[in-house]
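Hi support team,

I'm opening this ticket because the web form for multi-chain structure prediction keeps timing out on my end. I have pasted the exact lines I submitted so you can reproduce it. The total is 1077 residues across three entries, so I didn't expect it to be a heavy job. Is there a limit I'm missing, or should I split the entries? Thanks in advance, R.K.
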Amino acid sequence: MSAVETHAGTRVLTYAEALNEGLREEMRRDARVFVMGEDVAVWGGGGVFGVTRGLVEEFGAERVRDTPISEEAIAALAVGAAMAGARPVVEFMYADFMTLAMEPVVNQAAKIRYMFGGKARVPAVFRAQEGAGRGNAAQHSQSLEAWFCHIPGLKVVTPSTPADAKGLLISAIRDDNPVVFLEHKMLYNTKGPVPAGEHAVPLGVADRKREGRHVTVVGVHTMVLKALEAADRVAGEGIELEVIDPRTLVPLDIETIVESVRKTGRLIVTHEAYERGGIGGEVVAQVVARAFDALDAPPVRLCAANVPVPYSGVLEAAALPQVDDIVAAVRDLMA
Amino acid sequence: MATQVVLPKLGLTQEEGTIVRWVKTQGSRVAKGEPLFEVLTDKATIEVEAPASGVLLQILAPEGTTVPVATPIAVIGEPGEQIASVPSSGPPAPQSASLPGSGTARVHAARAASTGATARGVSVGDGRIRVSPRARALAELHGIDLRALQGSGPDGRIIERDVQQVVEGAGGGAAVAAGAPAGVRPAVPPAVSARLRTIIARRMTESLRDTAQLTLTTEADMAEAARLRDEIGAELERRGGVRPTYTDLVVRAAAIALRDHPRLNAQWTGNGVRLLSEIHVGVAVALDEGLVVPVVRHTDRATLAQISAAVRDLSERARTSRLKSEEMAGGTFTVTNLGVYDVDAFTPILNPPEAAILGVGRVSRRPVAVADRVEVRPVAVLSLTFDHRVLDGAPAAQFLQRVKHVLEHPYLLLLP
Amino acid sequence: MSAVSAPPELSAAQLIDMLRMMLRIRQFEQRALELYREGIMRGTTHPYIGMEAVAVGTCAALRPSDRITSTHRGHGHCLAKGGDPRLMMAELLGRAAGYCKGKGGSMHIADVEAGILGANGIVGGGMGLATGAALATKLAGRDEVAICFFGDGALNQGIFHEAANMAAIWKLPVVYVCENNQYAMSARADRFTSVPDPSVRAGAYGFPGLSCDGMDALAVYQTVGSAVARARAGGGPSMIVCVTYRYLGHHVGDPLNYRDKAEVEAWRSKDPIERMRAVLADRRILTAADADTVRAEVEREIDDAVAFAKASPEPDPSALTEDVYA
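Hello R.K., no limit was hit. The queue was backed up. Here is the completed structure from your submission:
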């Protein structure tokens, strides 16, 4: 676990409330921080998912800025503003909509520092929520983190708990690099203890959410929670899962994962992003390269099926890795 | 509860066996202890008894198939019975609830087509040892011979727990080599394989205990052989081949002599001598871990150049642990050479179930009487150990004499 | 069209500086072409020759703290905004002493401290950046202005419309300076742009759009300068279309099979440098001989930049992984 400083104790908050608190604290701390996006100020008091709720009352419409439906410009303005000294935190209502903003994110934000010989910085945070589980179908349910992980110059953050959501968002805002901060729509209402006050979780440090000896399960977003549930299920069979949440996919704390696999000899990587080209393959490749001799079984990926996310509840559940799938894969590995 | 019949392990280094004949037919009743089937190992055809009484419900490995040791080959039980599960150590086996077809596992099965499934399907009988990298590393650390292990993982893959059992069973496993400097590089895996050492120990003791072996020696003038070796060696090298060693010359000479003296190419079967129709000469190769004897197949049909290439290849692969087990099985005669260590003569120990073994000493220049004159000639001592149960001294001596003759007239080595 | 205040009168020294800058840009571009043809420059280069009045007239209206975003044809903007020709030339040769340590090249020269937010390899890539810089300025309560240089080809990128709309609704201090040099690669502006005078598109977003003679640095100064003053005063964005011409191809090696030599000659007769020389002579500020002296000085300056670039070391391969992240 990273260092968690608590000044005013710990409360139970939802993931959305924790993000809201992180944003609020950073906006209070640093006048250069501003929030911009579609319906971040007025709708429902702030944000379709409530992450920016109440911020406009405290910080005003200049710093909590509703935008037209213009994703490319939202991203591009964030890059320009960041170059000119501001610290924008822009919101994309759905990660799927970031496909419209790929040019400024990929060609501008990610490149500027390197392309300009280290003489510029782009301290922008691109927030979006992704993931399936609510019947939002093919254009509102994708997990697209692998797109961004592929691009040098971007950092990619995927918190799974309220405490990490707050702590990682604070670190993302303070980071001098463009950070793609991906939330998960099914996590917004999950609750957990969150330190009040200063709570920065460093980027690039994985968190061992549960210790175990037999199988290492690396999960992203909701899959961390499902892995923990699977761990409870197999515990009665004498099988111990070690659940690792990388928390940031770039930079990736591969050392913690490798260390765990050295102990367990077995690896499952699970995410809601499509299997093909997903971060799971990257984790597996790095583990195989660094700890081949530690493997007692072929690594397993449990990812979304390589199909567009379907609408029907039956089909959507079938497209996503479930607790039962983790349990079955664990039993296969331990057979 | 029905009983699975598995292919038994009938020899220390046996990996697989071929079902020659089912004595009982599927559906027939069989009593425990009755002959059930015959299996061909690389040593012999062996009759195996039924491990349980009941009906031979199913024959899984039909006649003529070759399967790895411990593979289920038949089921004995009463009609309608379930097959007893194979006991496994460590965490329990998967529950039926997790099998494809139940609950959400269908999802898993559908999606897992490119994950778990691709890990399987290594074809059976390809000679590879299926072993996880982790198990391989652990085995190396403890000097455990993977060939002697049975895997409990998917498709018989050797996994960590299989090696761990041996380590724990052997009380820590790795023995330090006698004479190895103590305290040097303690982190490096010990060079001596406890497993291989155990096998050698048992086989050599059996050899001395169970056979009637004695050794004959003679001296061969190697002047001509040396000339031949130099001349055709240079030519073979020019053609990209391998320069023959003295061992290669002796292997070829022994193969020629075995053709003329088949009683040396034989085995004692317990109630008689069995002459072997094929000549496969093994060549002893000394490794740090112990002695191995890879075999040159059909040695009598191989040219000297082919023998040289084969011996070079086998010994190089032996040194890098890349020999297949079948390449060390099935020898009918062995040649062992200690000449490189300045040994003149010695008494080789028979390599059971072979009837003879030929030791080669160093080729050294010594004063020799040649037609009343003393000449300095390159000579080597040949030491033939043979099993007196299989043959007597005179035929053994004739064989040795023939080897000596061929080496002293080495153009004979070049005849087909 | 709302009234805009005229920019300040230019002094004689400022006028001479404008001529000097146009000569510097032209000389820089000619030497860059030579370096390219000598095979010591990689990639490609997009010459700004013929369009010098736009960059020089615009930047004459700016303060050092104002910001610009540039394009793939960006050397002129960079020099006019105060870029150092030695560091630029070293960057063209990919050297360690270049603006970007050899990692950017011709299309990515930037000097953020000097307000140059970078040339940009993506057509329209600077539109959002300039608009965002203007937003940051507004949020910080400062009065800097952002200039977005772009070509007629970028008029039809979606980002123009998204950014212009945002600039308008938020009254951002940004001026969109369209360099209508008549061609987007081989495409004449009238083939792909729906209106003959693209400045009318500003009207769609409710802010001023003006056209001016982009071959006349003083006309550009007057027109852009008014828009800059308006933006600085909180009046919001403007769009200025500077009608100009690139004498040479899109980049070196352009087959130029899409336009007549006669057309080129007609435009060359309106050469912005000759025009400025004539103005200075008319106003008795600079004689022809004095102007020649300025040109000789600029030539020596660019020679020096080339010598500096050539003498600069190649980047060390160890720099490969530096500066990916801050």
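A quick check on our side: The longest strand of chain A covers residues 267-274. Let us know if the file doesn't open in your viewer.
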